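User: I'm preparing a small set of examples for a lab meeting where we compare how different chains pack in three dimensions. I only have the primary sequence for this one, and I'd like the structure in token form so I can line it up with the others. Please keep the answer compact; I'll paste it straight into my notes.
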Amino acid sequence: MIEILNFLRQLEQHNCREWFNEHKAEYQQVQQQWNGFCEELIREIGAYDADIARLTLRDCTYRIYRDTRFSSDKTPYKTHFGVFLAPGGKKSMHAGYYFHLGTGSSAGYPHGHMLAAGNYCYDQQAVKLLREDISDGWEEFQHDVLSIAHPSFKVDMEGALKRVPREYPSDAPYADWMRLKSYCLCATVDDDFVTQPLLAQRVAELFHTTKPFCDYVNRAVDYALEKA
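Assistant: Understood. Below is the structure token output for the 228-residue chain.
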């Protein structure tokens, strides 16, 4: 991953078409390395999640070119690589496993390196079902899902409602989960983690602890899709 990091950091400093075109061969080389890592990650996670084993690179990787049409940031290229392994592919609305390699130049998205389990785009019916499932079975959710996840994973509260919906008690132990509009567990890692050997295996091991969470979310997503 060191070569990929070096390229992304150079791109962050020279994010323009002229520089990118001059370094196109270098980009193609690191993209090939990234694709090889993604294929290895598919195999590692596919060993314990059969839905992931069916995926191809096209199902789970992203273009480096930014869509700048509706953004005030007109830089043409992303300075990170991401891969999202979800049943049915990255556009399926299902919860899955996202690994993100940034430049490490600052904390947080998009510069930091991170793992995320879940998704950010859910049907409103799926959100309603998840709130009902979690509130009705809070103890089971804690024991069978949350306690299994590696301690480095924390629930992402970004975009959550400011207040607990009125149909749920605001002082309940699960109150914050009722505020969520998306359900995702996130963990950050440092340069040392991403540059050590056997990265795909180590990432897959961490994601393995979040499989109960993804399965729990996808149960609601599947039900909502069936009723749509």
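A couple of notes for your slides: The chain has one domain: 2-227. DSSP finds eleven helices and five strands in the chain.

User: Perfect, thanks.
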